[in-house]
Design brief:
- This protein is an alpha/beta fold and 115 residues long.
- 35% of the residues lie in helices and 14% in strands.
- Strands 2-4-1-3 form a 4-stranded mixed beta sheet, with helices on one face.
- The longest helix has 10 residues.
- The radius of gyration is 15 Å and the shape is globular.
Length: 115
């Protein structure tokens, strides 16, 4: 979803991995060596335009492209509106809403940058 948004908008998305909500036990599944049949195809699609600015475990990298856990709703809003939008989501029962990153001009081959 993030990669499609970045490509379609002509920008890079910079995502703070520590701020990403996770489904319970999802990371533990990968730490035990489990995977999905789609992860290989997702790697082929995502890896060429993705950069990791910090070391992440193989399990965390798998989780980031998992088709079952990376499909949460991602919304991009103008920076000055971000805090108010987040508060409105929280006030209306979206309990896992959080700011996870920012949009940057596309100036490198990387559409997704994980920090």
């Amino acid at each position: 979803h993030a990669l499609e948004m970045a490509h379609g908008s002509g920008v890079s998305l910079h995502i703070d991995v520590d701020r990403l909500p996770q489904l319970a036990q999802a990371l533990a599944m990968y730490e035990r060596g489990m995977t999905t049949g789609v992860n290989v195809a997702n790697h082929e699609l995502v890896d060429p335009t993705t950069r990791f600015d910090r070391e992440l475990s193989p399990a965390m990298r798998e989780l980031l492209i998992d088709p079952q856990t990376s499909g949460g709703l991602l919304v991009a809003v103008d920076g000055p509106q971000a805090d108010a939008t987040l508060q409105a989501l929280l006030d209306n029962g979206v309990e896992h809403a959080t700011l996870v990153g920012h949009v940057a001009d596309f100036g490198s081959p990387h559409r997704l940058v994980f920090h």
